[in-house]
Amino acid sequence: LGSPLKTPGVNPDLASERLTASFSVEKLTARLDGGAEHTRMRRAIVEAIESDPAFSRENQYFQSQNERYEAAVRRAVHLQKKMREMGWTENGPEIKYIYRWLSGDIAFLLHRVFMRSISVLGSDKQVAKWIPLATEHQIIGSYAQTELGHGTYLQGLETTAVFDIATQEFLLNTPKISAMKWWPGDMGRSATHTVVFAQLYVHGKCYGVHPFIVQIRSLQDHSPRPGVTVGDIGPKMNFEHTDNGYLMLQNVRVPRENMLSRFCEVQPDGTYVRWGSQKINYFTMTTVRISILSDEVILPLMKACTIAIRYSAVRRQSKLKPGEQEAKILDYQTQQQKLLPQLAAAYAFHFINIYLHELFDRGYQEIQGRNFDSLPELHAFSSGFKAMVTQYCTSGVEICLRACGGHGYSLLSGLPSLYTRVLASCIYEGENTVLFLQTARFLIKCFMAASAGQPIPPSVTYLSSAKPGKCPAKDKLDFLSPDVYLKFFQFSRLLSSSAAKLQHLIQSGAEKHEAWNQCTVQLVKAAQAHCHYITVKIFVETVEKLDNKAGIQKVMKHLCDLFALHGIFSNAGDFLYDGYLSGAQMDLVTASYLDLLAVIRMDAVPLVDAFDFTDKSLNSALGSYDGQVYQRLYEWAQKSPTNQQVSPAYGKYLKPLLQNRLSKL
Amino acid sequence: LGSPLKTPGVNPDLASERLTASFSVEKLTARLDGGAEHTRMRRAIVEAIESDPAFSRENQYFQSQNERYEAAVRRAVHLQKKMREMGWTENGPEIKYIYRWLSGDIAFLLHRVFMRSISVLGSDKQVAKWIPLATEHQIIGSYAQTELGHGTYLQGLETTAVFDIATQEFLLNTPKISAMKWWPGDMGRSATHTVVFAQLYVHGKCYGVHPFIVQIRSLQDHSPRPGVTVGDIGPKMNFEHTDNGYLMLQNVRVPRENMLSRFCEVQPDGTYVRWGSQKINYFTMTTVRISILSDEVILPLMKACTIAIRYSAVRRQSKLKPGEQEAKILDYQTQQQKLLPQLAAAYAFHFINIYLHELFDRGYQEIQGRNFDSLPELHAFSSGFKAMVTQYCTSGVEICLRACGGHGYSLLSGLPSLYTRVLASCIYEGENTVLFLQTARFLIKCFMAASAGQPIPPSVTYLSSAKPGKCPAKDKLDFLSPDVYLKFFQFSRLLSSSAAKLQHLIQSGAEKHEAWNQCTVQLVKAAQAHCHYITVKIFVETVEKLDNKAGIQKVMKHLCDLFALHGIFSNAGDFLYDGYLSGAQMDLVTASYLDLLAVIRMDAVPLVDAFDFTDKSLNSALGSYDGQVYQRLYEWAQKSPTNQQVSPAYGKYLKPLLQNRLSKL
C-alpha cells in the first residue's frame, strides 16, 4: 500500500491559502519580533537548539511522569553546557528565545526563583555566600512558600521558625498537616536547599512571615536531612516534568545567618530589627505576573490558533454546496466564529503585553529613583491583566481544541497539553478571582476620588467622564470606526453601580467587609470590563502607528475591529442595559461582526504563519506547516508504547477467553 | 510527628454543614433514585462491587495507558464471572447500577455496540450465527465507522467494498490514508472482528455506505489477518483504558453473507435489493445520544459539584471579617456564584433526562406501531439536548475544577479526569455545532409552518405565541415566580430574526446553502435558547409535582429559580434587546439571583450529599464524605510512582553536578 501513504510535500489545500495573502507574512513576523534583526537572531537560536538531539521532544506524548522528569533534568544540565559552547549568557539577548523554545519543559526553573529570592531578600553577605554555589549548581534550590492549607493568603502560613538564643539557631516546624509545604517545583526530587517561608517567633512573640534558607537533602547521597520529610506530590494535569514537592519539618535547626536579612534581622540577643521599605517586595511579585504572560499564556494561544486554523484549512467535512467537493471546515461560519476571535485575541494580547512591559520598565525606573507613586496603579494592572489574559487564553485554547473535533482530543494534536498547561496559569501566581477583586478595589478608590474631584492616574481618567447618551451610529460600517466602539467600552456603569450598592449597604447598617462580599460578583465584572477597555484601546493605538506598506496595517485593523465587536457581541447586555445601544444597533454590530469573519478568513492561514513557529516547537500532528495531518497522525501513532508490545492482558485474559472457543470447536 | 497527621473522623467544618439541612437528605436521595426501594438495590449492588478488590480503582491516577488498558480488560472479564455469581443479567434491573459504578472504566463496551449493530442490522440468520459467539466472548467485536478523514458526515466515508461475482465475496480496501478507520474502541488491541462501514460497489456502481463483518485478527494467536493493518491510535486526553484503534484493509475478502442484510442484500448474481424502512436506523442513533446523558455527562457534573462543594466547606482562606478565623471559601459570594449554578444545573439536567427518556419510550412504542410521525421532533430533541447538556456540563466541571485552586489541578482531586472525560462527550456521537444546526433546521421548519397556519408539534407551539410586550414585574420577589420567568424564555426572537435574515438573503439572490451558512452563528444561538427554555419548563413542572413533606419541594424550588435567573443574568442581552426587560428590571433579576446564592449556600453540602456517591466512586482526595482533604492528599501522594524509586536522573545528572562541588571542597 505504498502509494496512499506517500507525503507529497505541502498539502495543496494549505498551499492555496498562502497564495492569496493580502499582506507580507515576513514583514508581519518582523514586526511581531520587534525588527528583522530579532527575527534572524531568534531563528538562528531555534536552529541551534532544534539541531541538537539532546533537546528533542519527539515521543514526549508517550512518556510517563518519571520519564518526563528525567528528560527535564537532562535538558537543564545539557543547557548549561550548550550555553557555554555557544557563548550564550543568562543576561544576554538570546536567553528569552532559548526559554521560549523550551516552553518551560525543563528542570531547575524554581532553582532560578531560589536565586532571585536570595538576590532580592538576602544581605550582601548572604548573596556572596549562596549565589556562587547556586550558579555553579553545587547546590540545587527551590522556593517553599505555598502550604497544603494556604495559597493566596500568605499571612495565614502556619510553618513556624522559633529563635533559640542558647544555640543561636532557628527551630523550624510543621505544626500540623495543613502547614506542610506543598507544590514547590524542583523540591520533590531535585533540591538540596530551599527557601522556607515561616512565621518568625522570638521570645514567644510572632513577627509574621519570613524567609529562611534550609538544607533539605544530603550533598553526599541526596537522602533527606534529619527531621526533614520530603517527596513528590504526584500526578497533575500537566507539568509532569516538574517535581512539585511536599516538605514537613520536625525540629529542623538552621543557623541565625540563614534568615534572609536585607530588610530585617534577628540579632544575637533576640532583638528584631527591620529597615528599608517592603514595598519593593510587592513590586517583585507584581512583575512576575506580567513576566509570565508572554511565554506561558499568550504563546500557547498562538500555538493553538496555528494548529486549529491550519487543520481547518485541510480538514474537509460535509458539503456546503450540493454536488461540490466537501468543504474546508474553515469555510463554515460557525468554525470562523470559533477560531477567528481567538486569533484576534492572540494579536491583541501580544500588543497589550508589549504595553505592559513598557509600563513596568518605566515604573521600575521611577522606583529606583525612590518614587513609589505608581505602585498602586501597577499592582492593579498586573493583577487585572494577569487574570484577564490567562482566563481569555485558557478559554481560547479550549475552543481551538474542541474546534478540531476528535483529532484535537488526541494528545498527538498538541492541543491537550497546551490547554492543561495554560489552565494552570489561571491558578498560580494569584487566583484570578482574588486578583480581579484587587483591581476592583483600586478602581473603586479611583472612582471615589474622581467623584470627590481628586486627581486619579491617567489610565482611569475615563471613569470620571460624563455618562454617555445614545450611540449615534446608523450604519453597520459605522461600527468599524474605533472612535465609535472605543466609546462603548469607556462607560463606567458596572463600577458606578457597584460603588452605589456598596455605599447603600453600608448606610443600611451592613458591616464593611460583608457589604464588600455582597458586591464581589459585580465588582469582578467591573474589573474585567476595565481590562477589556484598555486592551481594545492599546490595540487601536498600535494599529494607528503601523506602517501600511506591506498591507499590515489593514489586516491588523480588521483584527482589532473583530476583537472589539466580538466583545460587544458577547456582552450585549452591558451595552443594551442603559439604552446606549438600541436593539437595532446591536443588529448592525452583529452584521459587521459576521462580515469581518468572512474577510479575515481569507488571511487566516498567513496570519498564523506569521507567528513563525517551527514544526518542532508546535509538536503537533495537526499543525505542521505542510498540512499532512493524516499521514503524521498515523506515523506518530505507530510509535506509541501501546503498539510496542503485546499487552499482558492478551495472555492473562483474552487468550483464555478465545481459547475457550477453540476448545469447543 | 504522630499527632498532626491523625484523622479524627469527620472534619467538624463539614459536619456542621450537615446539622442545618432544611430538608431530609435521605428522602431527596430516594426521590432522585425513583423510590426508596431503588436506593436500597443500588446500595446493595455498589456494596457488592466495592467489596470486590478486582474492581478497585485505587492507584488509578498513577497508571500508564498500558496499565489502564490491562486493568480494563481484567475488569470486563471479571464482571462476567461476578454477574454469574450474583445472578445479575444483561437485561436485569441491576445492570444500569453496575455500569454506573464502573463509570465506563471497563473494556468491551464497543463489543456491546458490535452486538447491538448485528442485532439491529443483521438478518435472522446473521443474528443466529454471530450473537451467540459474541455473547460467549468467543469472538471480540468492535464497530469501525469513523475514518481519519471522516466523522460526522457518514456519506463521505471512503473505505470501499467491491462485490466479486466470481468468488461471491466482497473485496474491502482502504484506498487512501484518510480512509483508514480511526478511533473505534476495543479495536486497537482486543478485537478479533469488527463491523466495517464501507461504500458498496456492484458492477462499478456505488450503492452508498453499508456494514460488513470483517475478521481482523487470528483466533489462534491474535495476529492481524492477511491484508489487515491494525493498531492503537496512541494517547488521548482520557480513555487511557480504551484501545481506540486504526485499521487499514488491503484486498481483504469477506463472504457475501457478511454484509449485514436485514434491510438490503446483494444477491449472488449482483442484484442489489433493498426492503423495509431505514428510518429506524436513525432512531437508534438518536436514542444513543439520549442514553449517554445520564452516566457520561450529568453524573460527572454531579461528582464535580460534590467534590468542589465539600472542599469549599473545608478549605479556609483569608479573612472575611477582620479578627475572625479565616473564612470557609464557600462563604465568599464569588465562590457561590461559581459553584451553586452548577449544582442547580445538575438537578435541572437530572430532571430533563427523565423527561427525555419518557419521551423516547413513548416514541419507541409509536414507532413499533409503525407510526413515524414523532421522528423529526425526537431527532431535534436528541440533537439539541445532547449538545446543550454536554456543553453545559463540560463547562460546569471545568468551573468546579478551577474553583478548587491548585489542589483541583492535582489528578488526586479526581476533577481533571472528570473534566477530560466529559469534554469528549462534546465531540463524540455528533459534533455539537452540527447537532445544534439540526435542531435549528427543525425549528425553522416549524416556525415557517406555524406562520403559514399549519399544525406543529406541541413542544414548539410557543413559537407561534404572540410577541410579548413588556415584563410587568416590579419587585425582585416577582422574579421568583415561574409564571414570570418562564415567559422570558418563551420568546422566539432569535429564531424569527434568523428566519427573516435567511429569507432576505435568498430573496437578494444568495444561493440557499450560502444563505444558510451565513445564518448559522445565529441559528446555533436560537437552538440553544430553545433547549434552555424546555429545561426550565420541565424543572418548573417537576417542582410543582413534588411533595413538600420533607422540605424537598422548597429547596428544589430555590434551585429551579436559581437555574432560571442564572440563565437570564448570563444572557442579559437577549432579554434587554427588544425592551421586554428594562435595565432597572435587570437589576432586580440580579438582586434576586444574588439573594438566592446566599439561601442555597446553607443547604449546599446536604444537596450534594443527596447524590449519594460513595468515596470509592468519587475517587477524590478532596471530595470524600469525611472532609479530611489534606490528610488524604498526603497519604495518596506518598503512593505515587514518583516516590517509589530514586530517579535515574539522580545518578546520571544530579550526582555528577553535586559531586562537582564535593571534589572542590
From TrEMBL, chains A, B:
GO terms for biological process: fatty acid beta-oxidation using acyl-CoA oxidase; lipid homeostasis; very long-chain fatty acid metabolic process. Residues 282-444 form the Acyl-CoA oxidase C-alpha1 domain. Its cofactor is FAD. Pfam families: ACOX, ACOX_C_alpha1, Acyl-CoA_ox_N. Residues 24-140 form the Acyl-coenzyme A oxidase N-terminal domain. One of its GO terms (cellular component) is peroxisome. Residues 483-659 form the Acyl-CoA oxidase C-terminal domain. One of its GO terms (molecular function) is fatty acid binding. Keywords: FAD, Fatty acid metabolism, Flavoprotein, Lipid metabolism, Oxidoreductase, Peroxisome, Phosphoprotein. It is found in: Peroxisome. FAD binds at T146, G185. Belongs to the acyl-CoA oxidase family. This is Acyl-coenzyme A oxidase. It comes from Apteryx owenii (Little spotted kiwi).
